[in-house]
Structure formats: structure tokens, C-alpha cells
Amino acid sequence: QAVVRGFPTPCILTLYDVPMMEELHSLDPRRQELLEARFTGVGVAKVCFAGGSGPGTSPARSLPPVVRSSPQHHSLSNPPGTVSMLPHFPSDLTVEKLTAMENNKNSDLEKKEGRIDDLLRANCDLRRQLDEQQRMLERYKERLNKCVTMSKKLLIEKSKQEKMACRDKSMQDRLRLGHFTTVRHGASFTEQWTDGYAFQNLIKQQERINSQREDIERQRKALAKRKPPSMAQTPPLSLEQNKRKSKANGAESEAYVTPPLPLSAEYHEQEEIFKLRLGHLKKEEAEIQAELERLERVRNLHIRELKRIHNEDNSTFKDHPTLNDRYLLLYLLGRGGFSEVYKAFDLTEQRYVAVKIHQLNKNWRDEKKENYHKHACREYRIHKELDHPRIVKLYDYFSLDTDSFCTVLEYCEGNDLDFYLKQHKLMSEKEGRSIIMQMVNALKYLNEIRPPIIHYDLKPGNILLVNGTACGEIKITDFGLSKIMDDDSYNSVDGMELTSQGAGTYWYLPPECFVVGKEPPKISNKVDVWSVGVIFYQALYGRKPFGHNQSQQDILQENTILKATEVQFPPKPVVTPEAKAFIRRCLVYRKEDRIDVHQLASDPFLMPHIRKSVATSGASGTAIPSTSSSSNSSASN
């Protein structure tokens, strides 16, 4: 018996037979380590027997050293003269089972090693595929660069051809439509417009028609003097009276023969001829007037193209540079006070864009440059977050140098509404209503986002016609004067303070923007509602409702908008009462009484089903008592 260290109570230990121990020691060191690892801490321990001749022991049967075990749990220091004995616990493990377990472990190890080899081979395959993909990617990049280079070359070539064609057409139109000539007035030179041969020919035709009309009027007056008397008023002379009168006046007739009066039939024939000739001249004059108006529209395009070509030739970006390694400039679209707008091609996204190049005046002070740049950054931050089909998208913003930067906008092929109205004067009510519906839809979006936005600069020049006609889609642009209605500056009752009083286009601003006092005026989204009413009025009547022939300075000095208490409608062209009522709701003088954007979006005039129901109920509920009453009502309408 022996007490094993680590056990609280004594236990009986029996020794393995010597052959079994020899078999254990005959295992290779690797298997011994596996067995040690398997049975560490399971009850394997070493005990020391004092002396070696105690009762129940056989000194002759000494055992060889046992397998290694953990020194903390299975080893005891053996004093001299002691024998290390292996304790035995009841177990069903045998050497065969241990060998089988070892074989299983070896097979698992071989499987793991095989799996590792498979993974290494797969890793090598993947690395080889990755290298191939990298080489393929490099080839594709090289091809893409070649394609981009070729695209740039073709776009530049096409742009040069278009520029040449525009200049050739402009030179031809110079002779036909006219051109600018430099005229000296004292010590200064001014440009004066000279009409081309097309206008000169029309003027000659107009002069010819006027001359023929005057000639016909003279002949008609002469014919009226020789108008024969009617049969009822003066009876015809008898034959003898004619003979006596002719004999009495024989001497006078030799000196001067009075032409005989035309007969009644001849007179009426001649009168009918004169009327037909005058009618033909009137028709021809109307055709000349229509042709003159058409030529004036073409001349406006020609003058605009002449100015564009002149500005393009003097631009520093005329030679197709690539800005920001991405935007290839093609040709100039227009030029403003401090900016140029180019049609460009986005080489990354493969689409046409409009690049607006802001160029600061180099003579400005640094403070003014900083304010301008700050204002442009503010516009960029406002516009960048907007995403609506009726608002021009802003794609990018970058700096060129210290005095210039660019904004990249969505490109629209058509012109703006201002140019359309200058060409066509006005439009039909259906076309104008379609444009207003799209504008109100965009304004509704601007007031539904957080924080809401007041555009503040709605005018025909900031409304783009996508296809250049009044029967297509529109897009709103230019958020340079927009106001953000955040919680800090906006009050739902009074609105927000107008900090930029004096800015904007005066014809389209409401009266509250012109109020001068100790504190800045308060504005809200009703500013845009007023602008919608002015634009709709101008589209229908071809003129502005307030200050039509005035300049901005005159409007400011004469307080034109502050006096615009009521809108007046001309008799022509004919506009429906519903459209007039809609304009009146937009142009209410007091902002407290004017509808806001949300009410404008639900206005009956802009709701087709509501308009139809109103018209149907009005037709069914109105009785026509008599013909005279209906004629009187139609005359009053």
C-alpha cells in the first residue's frame, strides 16, 4: 500500500506485469509521447516505497523506469534505495486499443496533412489565377486608355467640325441677316447693327406695296369723281337736246374735250378691280409681315451665335482641355458675368455634362474673392443634395486654381424659357399650364425635404426646356440665391429674415422683398408662389404683369412692385377664367393672404380631375333661360 500524492484518501496500487511494461517501453518515443498526452492527469502517478523490503513486497522483482509524466502530478523524488512504481487504476484500455487509437490519430494526421497539401495546391492555383487576372486587368486598362484616347480624339474632331460649320453658317447669315459694324463717334467706337439683304428685300417689297396701294387709292378717288348719276335721280337727255348742246358747245369742244362719263356697269367693274387689287396687296403685306417676324426670330439666333462665337474665340478654354483629368471641354454654350458654361464630356461616366467655370476678377480683394467662393460653395452644398426629375442635377465641384473653380451640371439639350418667349412671344394655356405643373412639383419637393429650401430666383431664364419646346419636360436650375429654412433662422409664423435684399430679378419678386425698414423683411416659400404667377402671366400674355417696359433700376426707384396691389388682364389673347383666378391667387399682394407652396400644389387649376368635375357641375347646374341672356353673358365674358 502507498499513499498517492494528490489524493485525499489512501488507495490500493497494483503493479503492471513486467512483459507489459517492456511492451510499453518498446514503443517508439513518438508513441510514448502520444500515450503521455492521452493519460496526463487521469490517474497515472509515481509512488515511492521506503527501503524495498517491506511486507508484501518482493525485492527481487525490480521494475524498469516507467513512462514520463508531468512532474507536478506524477513524479516524486526518489530517495536512495527506493523503487518507482506505476500505480494501476481500473480501466478497460488495452495495448491493442491504444494502438488502434494511435493509428486513428495517425490517419487523421495524414488526412490533415493531405488537406494542407490540397489547400497549398489550391492556393497556388488561386495565386496563378490572380496573377493572370492582374495581367488581364492591366491589358484591359491599357485597352480602356486607348478607347478613352480615341474617344477624346473623335470628340475633338467632331467638335472642330461643328465649330467650323457654325462659323461658315454665321458668315453666310452675315450677308443674309446682317452683321455688326464698328462706327466711330468722336473719340469712341460703338458697334452698330446693319441688316442683311433678306431684310432689305422685304423692306423694298413693303415699299412697293405701299406705292401700289397709294396708286390704287388715287385711281379710286378719280373714279369716284366720275361716278355716273343714278337712273332715278337724272333722266337721260333726248337725242335733240344732245345735238343742240353739242352745237352750242362746238367751239369749246374744239379746245378741250371732256371725257364722257362711264356707264354704271363700267364704273362698278372698275371699282371691283380696285377692291380686288387692294385685297391682294393686303394679303401680300400680311405674308411679308409674317416673313419679317420669322426673319427677326432667325436674326435673334444669329446675333446670339455671333456673340457666342466671339466669346468662344476669346476664351482661355477654347482648345479642348481636359479638366480634372475627366471632363473634356467641347464648345462654349454661353457666358455670364463671371462664368463660362461649356458643353463637356465626362470620360469616366461616359455622358455629356455642362461645366460651369467660375473665374474671379484678379483685381478683386482677397476678402471679395473669399466671399464669392464661399457663396459658390454654399450653392454647391444646397444643390448637391437635391435629387428630383424636375431639378437639374449637380454632379461635381472642383478647383482649377486660386482664382477659378468649376461646377459640373446635368446637360440639357434645349434652351431656357426666356429664350423661347423671346422667339415666340407667348404660348397656349395648355402649354403654360404644363410648365407650371412641373415647376410646382419641384417646389413641393423643395419644401418637403429637411431643411426646406426657398429658390428665390425663379424666372424664365432659370427654367430649362429639355427638348427646346413648350410641350416637353422642364428642369429648374440656378440655386445661387436659395434660402435654407433651418430651425435657427426660420419661423413658421413670420418666416425668415431676408439677408440679401436687393439681389434677384425684380420683375419676379413679391412686394415683401422691397419693404425697407429698421429690420430686414420676412420671407417664406410664398416668394416662389408669386414668381410662379408672374411666369404664368408672361407665358400667356407675352408681357410681364408689373414693370414690363421698365429696367430694374426704374422698378426700384419708382416702387413699381410695392404699388402692384392688383393684377390687370388684357382682353387679348383670350384666357380662361380658371387660369386668371389661379394667377390672382398667386399674385395676392399681402403675403398673409397669399397661398403657400403646399396649397399651390393642391390648387384645383393644377388638378385635372378636379377641374373636370367643376366644369361638369357648372354645366349641369346652369340653365339658359333665353337666347338673349346667353348672348349677353357671352359678350360679358
TrEMBL record:
Cofactor(s) this protein cannot do without: Mg(2+)
Primary site of residence: nucleus
Domain Protein kinase: 327-606
Gene3D superfamilies: Transferase(Phosphotransferase) domain 1
Coiled coil: 278-312
Region of interest: Disordered: 54-84, 210-256, 617-637
EC number: 2.7.11.1
Subcellular location, record wording: Nucleus
Swiss-Prot/TrEMBL catalytic activity: L-seryl-[protein] + ATP = O-phospho-L-seryl-[protein] + ADP + H(+); L-threonyl-[protein] + ATP = O-phospho-L-threonyl-[protein] + ADP + H(+)
Keywords: ATP-binding, Coiled coil, Kinase, Nucleotide-binding, Nucleus, Serine/threonine-protein kinase, Transferase
Basic and acidic residues composition-biased segments: 210-220
Positions annotated to bind ATP: 356
Highest taxon of the lineage: Eukaryota
Single GO MF annotation: ATP binding
Enzyme category, top tier: transferase
Comp. bias intervals (Polar residues): 69-81, 231-240
Matches recorded under PROSITE patterns: PROTEIN_KINASE_ATP, PROTEIN_KINASE_DOM, PROTEIN_KINASE_ST
Single GO BP term: intracellular signal transduction
GO cellular component: nucleus; perinuclear region of cytoplasm
Listed name of the protein: non-specific serine/threonine protein kinase
Species this chain originates from: Oncorhynchus mykiss (Rainbow trout)
